[in-house]
Amino acid sequence: MSIPKFAVLQKPRGEERTYGVTPRIPGGFITPEALINIANVAKKYGGTIKITSGQRIAILGVKGEDVDNIWEELDMEPGVLSPYSVKNIELCPASFCKRAKQNSLKLGMKIEHRFYGAPAPNRTKIAVVGCRNGCASANAKDIAVLADEEGFIIRVGGSAGFHPRLPDTIAEGLNEEEAFDMVEAVFEHYCEAAAMGDKLGPFIDQISFESFKVGVMSRYQEKRQHEKTNKEI
Ligand code: SF4
Asked: What pTM does this model have?
């Protein structure tokens, strides 16, 4: 039997094959109605609900033949469109948190909508958080946006897992618009310069952070110039 679309095959137990289904929950914010629907669908198809580390809710242990119906009844988009894409965009509660230095939620949601499912050389994670505490494991993300009193800080190449890597800071003191352009510049340069299969952190180590930064800054300056020209017209 082929693997159903947008479902992850779980550890086989004998002949039995079960799957996990994980809908998209932008920024980890969900309405009570959608949450209730997830619970109802999981109950109907005998699934186990798991809160994931990526700020999503997975329904595990469902049968392959039920997957299409589950997606239809969830009426939500898949959390992950492809392994070679932006897989997670995690946000901290920002304005709901007393430590926040900027309300990073608006920028975070803009980044979520721009990069959700965007094709990339390898799985890519992004975090946007409201202070240097870096909740949502921001420093373990490929691209991290953190806030302080001066504005937004962009870090690149962070990773946890088998080969943990601390990120490099590529820019600081950016306003919201500049931070968005910088994230785009980082992502686009990575997509253009890296080979399929390259993770961002190891790719930066391979070509050197200085060289990576030169490519990103050139793209960033183009974007800023373009926006300035548009505003002047
Ligand atoms: S990163 Fe800062 S603002 Fe965001 S939840 Fe953590 S402590 Fe609060």
From this structure: 0.94
* Measured CA distances, 41 to 7, 28, 31, 56, 206 (Å): 15, 19, 16, 15, 46
Element (H, E) at 109: helix 105-115
**What is the 104 CA–ligand 1 centroid distance (Å)?**
10
Is the pLDDT at 117 greater than 90? The verdict is yes
Ligand 1 probe mutation, 92, 98, 104, 137, most atoms within 8 A of CB: 92
Q: How many Å apart are CA 42 and CA 73, to the nearest integer?
A: 10
Greater pLDDT, 231 or 104: 104
> Would you place residue 1 in the very low, low, confident or very high pLDDT band (cuts 50, 70, 90)?
low
Residue 90 and residue 180 in one domain: yes
Please tell me if the CB atom of residue 100 comes closer than 6 angstroms to any atom of ligand 1.
yes
The answer, yes or no, to whether any atom of ligand 1 lies below 6 A from the CB of 131, is yes
| Domain containing residue 134: CATH number | 3.30.413.10
- How does the average pLDDT of the chain come out, rounded? 95
Contacts (Cβ under 8 Å, ≥6 apart) of 159: 140, 142, 165, 199, 200, 201
| Interior/surface letters 107-131, b for 16+ CB within 10 angstroms, e for the rest | bbbbbbeebbbbebbbbbbbbbbbb
What tens digit of pLDDT does each residue of 119-177 get?
999 999 999 999 999 999 999 999 999 999 999 999 999 999 889 999 999 999 999 99
Residues of the domain holding 20: 8-74
Instruction: Say how far apart CA 178 and CA 171 lie, in whole Å.
Output: 10
Q: Is residue 105 pLDDT above 70, yes or no?
A: yes
